[in-house]
Fold this sequence. Notes:
The structure is a homodimer. Chain A is α+β, with helices and mostly antiparallel strands.
Amino acid sequence: MKHILIxxxxxxxxxTEEELNKIASNxxxxxxxxxxxxxxxxxxxxxxxxxxxxxxxxxxxSECGKETTFKLYTEEQSVTIFNQHAADKSSRYRLECxxxxxxxxxxxxxxxxxxxxxxxxxxxxxxxxxxxxxxxxDEFASFMSSSPAERYKALLAKRPELLKxxxxxxxxxxxxMTPESFSRxxxxxxxxxx
Amino acid sequence: MKHILIxxxxxxxxxTEEELNKIASNxxxxxxxxxxxxxxxxxxxxxxxxxxxxxxxxxxxSECGKETTFKLYTEEQSVTIFNQHAADKSSRYRLECxxxxxxxxxxxxxxxxxxxxxxxxxxxxxxxxxxxxxxxxDEFASFMSSSPAERYKALLAKRPELLKxxxxxxxxxxxxMTPESFSRxxxxxxxxxx
Lengths: 194, 194
C-alpha cells in the first residue's frame, strides 16, 4: 500500500525513487476502526496523518451543542492541525474516522529530525503544504461565492463518492445548510442514485 | 522599515539576528499606489509579497460580473497565490492595493536559490506557511459556523481598523452578505464610530 504514498510524494518532490522508498519505509502505517476519534477538541495535536484508505471528518461541537463539519478528508489527502499561529496550541477541532481507515501516521515532534535525516523531505513537505494552502484558498473562495445549491452541484461534479460515504446530516453541514435544505436541493437537482 | 520584517521572521525561525539581517538585506522593498493591480485574474503568479504598510485585497469577478472579496491582507501578512494543486497555474484571483502600500517583494522563481543561499530560510518559510494554513483553516471554519451578524461582531473584535480602511461594499462581500444587510447589521449592532 506504500506505493500510494510514494506516488503522492513524487508529485511534490525531486527526490529519487530510492530516497522516496527510504522515507516511505520509515513511516508507520496503522489501521483505525470507524468511529475512532484521532484527536479531541481541546487536545494538543501530536500526530499528522496521510490517508491510504478511508475517510476522516474534521468538525467541532459548539458550547450550545451545534456540530459543524469543516472538512472531509479521503484517500491521498494529508490531515494535520497546524497551530503555529494560535496563542492556544490545543485543537479547536475533532478528527474522527467516518469509515475504517488505513493511515500513515507521523509524529509532529519528530518532524525536524526527519528533515535532517532525509535530504529533500523538507522541500517536499513545503511544496505539499503550499499546495494545501492554495487548495484551501480555492475551497474557501468557492464556499464564499456560491449558494448552497451551487455547492451541492460542485460536490456532485468533484467528489460524488462522498454522497455515498458520508451521513447526509454531516454532508449538509459541510455544505453550509440544514439537513432539510439539503434534502430539498438533492430532490430538486437529482442525486447520483437518480 | 526592515525591522518589521525581521521581527516577523523571528517568530518563525531559530536563525540568528545576523542571519535574519542578511535575509532582510537581500529582499527588495517597493512602493505601490492605491489602486495598483499586483496580479490580474488569469495571470501567472510570479511574485509574493509581505506587507510593511498598506492593504491588499484579494478578490474575483465572476463571468456575470459579480465581485467577491476573499481576503483583506494588512501589515505583517504575507500574500502569495499558491497553485501547486491546480491543473491551470494561472491565478483565479486579482490582487489590488486598497491603499498606498509598502511591500517586500519576492520572486517565486528564485525561491529555491534563496533557500540554498540562506540556511534556515526554508525551515522558516515552512513554519510560516504551516501557520498560514492553520489560520486559514480557522477562518474558514469560523465563516462556515457563524451567521453574518456574528462575522461582523468577530471583525469588530479582531480587526476593527478594517471598518475605516475598506469600502463598505467590499467589507460586506468579505463577510458574505449584501451591502444592504451589512448596513442594517451595522446599524443594529453599532459601529466603532458610535
